[in-house]
Amino acid sequence: PINPKADEICGLKAYPTVAAVPEVADLATISVGRDHVIPAFNQCIEAGIRRVIIISQGFSDADKRGRELQEQITLLARGSGVRVLGPNTLGVTNNFRGLSTGFIDLPRPVKIPPVALIAQTGLLQVAPKEFSGCNWGKAIDIGNACDVDFVDALEYFGTDPEIRVIAVYMEGFLRARKFLEAASRISLTKPIIVFKTGRTAAGARAALSHTGSLVGEDEINDAAFRRAGIIRVKNVSEFRDAVHSFLKFADLSGPRLGVLTPSGAAGIMATDACDDFGFTISNLPENLAGKLKEGLPDWVHIGNPVDIWPVGMLGDGFSSAYKQALCGLLNSPEIDAVLALSLSMSSPLHQDIDIAAVVAEAGKETNNTKPVSMWIYGTAAAATVEKLEAVAQVACFDSVEQAVRGLSFVYRYHQLKGRKIPAQRTFPYDRKAADLLLAKGRQRKVLLGEDALDLLSIFGIPAAAGKIARNWREIEAAAESFSYPLVLKLSGEAFLHKSEWGGVVTDIRNKKELRGAWKKMKENVRLRNPKLKTGFQLQEQAAGKELLLGLKLDPKFGHVLVCGLGGVYAEVFKDISRELVPVGRSEAEKMLSSLKTYPLLKGVRGEAGIDQEGMLEILERLSFLAACVPDIAELDINPLMADAGGCRAVDARIIW
Ligand code: ADP
Ligand code: MG
To answer: What is the 13 CA–ligand 2 centroid distance (Å)?
Structure first.
């Protein structure tokens, strides 16, 4: 302890200044009023201390003066090369070494798990059981992160041999791209669980484009986490169960479950939960049903879920039947993991059922490496769970659903680990022609109609043939080079949503109808605003399903590519998928197949689907466009008309 007024604090000899300490400390912890922090920090720098934790609050978490003070601390840190954690932090805990800098006395746990916590708060360090189900092996509260931040902490635990699982509690991003880069690398060897809060605060804003309004900040976070191989959880209960699963289960390589239950009802609940989380209830191994049925009456039915109660009662007892079934499931090559449910009762009548011993023996006999996810109920559940938690590959959860969900985290991680790093395909394009249009767009901040469609065409994204016309004479002339049916639209920056102006007429069959449409359109505009000058766009009509494609520039992660159901109802159905750019073939495939309307795109009930190859290439080309034109804020193609014969953009807008 350093304090100018005390000789002794908590039984320890106190020094008046840092300089008075006879050795150079490995770490200094500063916990003084905010105005005294910088002088104290300077003392540490002068004494040659290289690592400092600033506990004090009242900095960027508080007011303008606080922000200024924090900036000075950052400058001092950068200038001296001293690394600073905080301010406004509980600091670090390392239970392996019995170190904690917290101002709340945290007891050192008996069992120290290889799990690290990185948080923007001390709450999770103070409540480890509530948030991890167990404890943290090590924890860092980055606080206001004036120097050490998420990226540093992640890199640190990424190479820490004592840490196997990394749990992150995050309110806002700092150095988002660097964080994703680090996470992409580290998630290949250690699961990273992120609990990101503040989801509802920043919803999708009302935007100029459909894409803008359809893609909210949090959906972009989702896409970013997925891309980096991060397991995102949405609430405390998921966070706790995910940590628990990763600590106990080594790996889950497939979705086929064997279910063991003493109750038919629990088996039905399990079946529903498996369905919810994308697991399949596997076929029982060939010989298992037969073996279990040996000597039992005909009416006993053995399936998966295995209802083990009647087998036990009519045969050699519950424990023996349970063990036989569990071994059979664990040995089966058709089963990737076991969901095992059991009662555990305290009454002396049920002393013969020692489920913890049964499961431990089954694990040993089968040399088990498969996850066994359990839900234990009954009056002796707590004691049994404690014993089961000591068995390798066995984890217990508070409900059937949670037991299945626990498996789903590990399976999702298995899939994410196998993901390919997407590569941007390049396409040849006419750079000169593109630059001309881009210059216009940058100057006007927007490209609409034919201009936008032309730019897309330059990048190889097909568009319906069309022409701009100022008056009837030009419309008439343009119609000569097209074949009916035609579409007439209003053109110009005043008409951002043309339909709202009565500015789109489709299905024009002949010149007479064309003239009628033109007259009506002029009249529609005159009625609303007689001073507006009208321009027109004549287009060939395209057939097919209306899709939406888009780009949105996110300030943290760069361009996000969007595709989904288009047309005027795009915002109503909100059936879209999103991926960070670059999008390669396999990401494009995922984008299409994850749409709710995908069956329609594939073709349903004899109805032809769309040209999926064409669509996939368009997604890759849009991703390439984003790479070539990094300053596009939003881009919309709505709709892209798609049928079996191909895809054509008929309306587009690009915003800078
Ligand atoms: P806006 O979005 O500005 O209202 P659009 O050009 O998207 O105008 O046209 C509105 C709707 O008209 C489209 O969603 C589509 O249903 C139809 N449409 C427009 N152009 C064509 C075309 N060339 N072929 C077929 N349908 C079209
Ligand atoms: Mg449109």
So the answer is: 75
